[in-house]
Amino acid sequence: MERVEGAARWRILAVLLGVIFMSLIGVSIVNVALPSIQIGLDADQSDLQWVLSGYALTFGIILVAAGRAGDIVGRGGIFLVGVGIFTLASIAAGFAPDATWLNAARFVQGIGSGLVSPQAIGMIQQYFRGDERGRAFGYLGTVVGFSVAIGPVLGGFLIGAGGPDLGWRLTFLVNAPIGIIAIILGIRWFPKPLFRRPRQTAPTGTDRLTSWLWSLDPVGSVLLGLALLAILFPFMTSGGSALWWALLPTGIGLVWVWLRWETRCPRLGHTPMVDLDIFRTSSFANGAVIMTLYFTGMTSVWVLVALYVQDGQGKTAFESGLFGIPSALLSAYAAHWSGRRVNHYGRKIVIGGLFLALLGLFASIAVVLLHERFNVSVWWLVLSLSFIGLAQGAVISPNQTLTLAEVPLEYAGSSGAIMQTGQRVGTSVGIAMITAAVFASLARWSWSVAVVIGFGLISLVVLVALAMAFKDQRDRQKIAANSTGAEDGQPRTALVSDSHF
User: Fold this and answer.
1) Where does the pLDDT of residue 463 fall: very low under 50, low under 70, confident under 90, or very high at 90 and above?
2) 138 CB contacts (<8 Å, ≥6 apart)?
3) Is the separation of the CB atoms in 319 and 381 below 8 Å?
């Protein structure tokens, strides 16, 4: 394992955060650019849907395989390859002559981002320890918050400056200089070699290429990729054929086949893409479930707010974006604050964040109902949604730190990717199901009632996540109590201790 000392760690982190910022800006900018893309390329609604869904689909499918590839052959090298792919795809999207070309470029962008994201998590795990790791994940959460806040504003500025034809293209081309600078700095600052030869080999008699491929578990990668494709695709094709839903049980069946293969893989002398024993670590299993549930519920909040504010209240897209800016900035602050304290307070921060999420949801329900009944200004949502921003900063990055704390370093990339895959699946399923419930409610009731129903469903999901957080808290206390009886008579030293909560 490469050793990195002193300020070199923070230079590496700066490159990682710059690229994450670029990829997140790319997502939020595209949301703003969709109307201009529709006009500029004469795109229909299906084309616009795939501008968003195509990126999310390839991103989710490649995550775990990319994470394992980084664990095996070198995270720095895979990271820079991903940055290069993302940058080239951004340029291709910026010069797209038609919607088909644009969507193909977005698919490739998703691959590049899927290669980058698990390496960033794995490299933070690799190069940072203790309080510094919490701070590093806190900075990551800060970048997420700022990117969400500035993305729509930057997108609006570029579209306004470039006009209807050039403006939306600039939202993609702006990634190019960031990506090029990141590649140059990464080559200069990342530990060498960027790629390494796998330590484990395939069965005797195979050549070097075959040995390298077996170390990446190609069978497991294909099985999991197909499973995620079958699970995610129906949720990303709203308005498509009902037959697509037949893919869902197929995907679940493929997950079972993948689990069987990963269990059998070591007995065949191969390296599995995921060491399933990590799920025996309660902190990882509990944290992964918490994050999946959180994203299943909370990512739908901003979809509902946009629909309610624009379609229900007649606000513009720009005004709709303003509702989320204070929340995003508070999320950045909360992530930074939590990152410095997560190793001291542990799961207490995540539990507090989930309570803040519930407070924000209940307050938002109150604003909507008061607006419906007494014509209270809908702009009070800015205040209620601010609690949700604080919740995001207190839940996502701290939970990541706690969940990965006891994961073996050789599986840091793939384990982080499993968490992110849960996030992607949760996001797709949550948005599809909750928005479906809201639109079904609109057939009988007003926008206000429909949104309240949507917020209520989200609250139920968050309550389940809160129950899992308390379970993890109890599990940690049991482990701490059991370890007190160690041979030296002293409690086991852990990276994160919650026993004082």
Assistant:
1) very high
2) 335, 336, 337, 338, 339, 340, 342, 397
3) no
Q: What is the pLDDT of residue 497?
A: 36
List the one residue out of 341, 305, 272 whose CA is nearest residue 450: 305
Q: Which helix (H) or strand (E) holds 172?
A: helix 130-173
DSSP letter string over 202-228?
Answer: -STT--HHHHHHHHT-HHHHHHHHHHH
Phi-psi region for residue 207, left (φ > 0), alpha (ψ -120 to 50) or beta? Answer: beta
Contact 265, 230 (CB under 8 A): no
- Cβ neighbours of residue 440 under 8 Å, at least 6 residues apart? none
Q: What are the tokens at 223? A: 């099985």
pTM for the whole thing? 0.81
Nearest to 217 by CA among 423, 76, 84, 411: 411
pLDDT, tens digit, for every residue of 480-490? Answer: 777 665 545 54
Domains of the chain and CATH, by start: 1-194 (1.20.1250.20), 217-272 (no CATH), 275-482 (1.20.1250.20)
Structure-block tokens of residue 468: 């899992």
Task: Identify which of 412, 48, 79 has the alpha carbon closest to the alpha carbon of residue 236.
Answer: 48
